[in-house]
Amino acid sequence: MEVLRSAILSEIQALVHVFRQDYVKLKSTQLQGLASLRVHVYQWTDLADFESQTVLRPFLDIVRNENTTGPLTRTAMESVCTILQAYESSTTSTSGLSMQYALSDVVDAVTQCRFQETDPESDQYVLLMVVRVLDMVMQCRDATRQLHAGTMWHVVESLYGISRSYEVTRLAMLSFLMHTTTIDNNIYQVTSSLSVGMATLPLWRLLWVHLGPHLKWQWEALVLGGIVPVLTTCLNDQDEHHDDRHMRMTWKVEMAQLMVDFLRDPLFVIDGFVTYDCAPNPRANVVAAALDALFFEAIEISGDDEHSETTELACLGVLNALQMLYRRAQLHQQHLSCGDERLPSPETLLAQRQRKQLFQDAITTFNTKPSAGIDLLASSGFLPTPVTPHALATFLRALPRGMDKNTVGQVLGSLGKLPQPESSPRSKTPVTNNQSKPRHDSIEFRAQLRQAYVETFELHQMPLVDALRTFLGAFRLPGEAQQIDRILEAFATHCRERDLFGCVDVAYLLSFSMIMLNTDLHNANIRADKKMSCADFVKNNVNYGLSNQGTPLPEPFLISIYHNIATNQFRTSDTDPFGPDRY
């Protein structure tokens, strides 16, 4: 049932999206039919409620309407195909008799569809969709056997007429080639083709329905990296081209609609809150972040019609969540215990939530005062007591959400402090344990911490440039040269032990040179004619005058490093939700 519900909601959103592109005003009888269907789909609780004729009627009304455009008619037919496939996959619970009248309506609407001609290639593609819909009808064999002979004759007649058009295949191939797009690095932030982004939205619903409990980390990245940043993006007419702003606003509306549908699902709110917001760290507060994003959009006041639609959806999403919580509050305690035995008790969730808040407070303290933050983490049981270099290195490598990469780099690069004397020479008063510096601030501990940290990376058989890129992606190098020197020395020692180089100094010097090259090539303040050339980089690094197994570094090896860095900058962004440091 949830698969069918997900398919219907996805097709409603896809059709409304095309409607926005073709028509300025969205208030029409056709859209009212889709909106009414969406409300019913939310309310239906049994598979028998999903009566096929009722579900397909708004889509078929668009197919029959002579005032619609080719793209809108085509999308409606695609939706019909998808919904029929969803019903076909539920044949064990859906009788052929209930589908018989729906299939008759589909054949009648598709074989007699009329629309306004716009683009020749797009209009011809509608004919291919007619073939696809009729083919889908024929695949519903149990219901097709009960169709009237006249209905079957319409199917054969339509297919025969279309097959006589030799232009269909050529135009379909041309349309495919013209609409092939390149996916950007982060499709959920900005994409050059809204059709690509729209094609991914049904996958979001299917992932939640089928694999939600098994993709906890991935789903967290999708919500926090895909939906929340889009909803919290402020669009300014003065900063963007009109077409780019319209594309971003359209995508923002679609993501808001997706979140509204998710918040209508009780499992998304309840399971999401238990799985993420009340779970031990490093899980993020997914439900809270989603609601905060909707609140951010709902309170933003603008006279723009496009923005007002997003604001309305944001308010609707918050209302959906409140209605779900209200319905749960009205349930009797017996019904609640019978239906939610797998959920922890409210007292347990409250304790978990409070402990997670304590963890987040400790991370905030760590970002401003690392030593005090480590002490708080240890005293709260998040780190062992006493703190060991391996435990702290593993913790820093995990990079819990909210931890500042700059602070991690400062902790790794700091020299440490000398041990305190047992008594003060002037006052001759013994130093108490509370006054003494913690062991994790000592010089010896920080040296062991750096070594333990680099050992958390698997760099075996990895080229040095890729190893350095992976290493630097987990934190941000401090600005002080001595701190960089200590971190790179530990990194070079690890690479040497992995037999990547015959000499630690060679790995160290080459790593330092690559960092300088990355800064030189990708610094906007350096003129193009002043940037380091490939020949200069090779000249500076081919031979350091050290013993590197008796041979200098090969020039092809250095040239490949130069082009690798020139085309792919070292990045340590804190805002990349899909970055490798999260996995």
Automatic annotation (TrEMBL):
Molecular functions (GO terms): guanyl-nucleotide exchange factor activity
Biased composition (Polar residues): 421-436
Pfam families assigned to the protein according to its UniProt record, in alphabetical order: Sec7
Annotated segments matching region Disordered: 411-440
Ranges where the SEC7 domain occurs: 348-568
GO biological process, one term: regulation of ARF protein signal transduction
GO CC annotation terms, alphabetical: cytoplasm; endomembrane system
Name under which the protein is recorded: SEC7 domain-containing protein
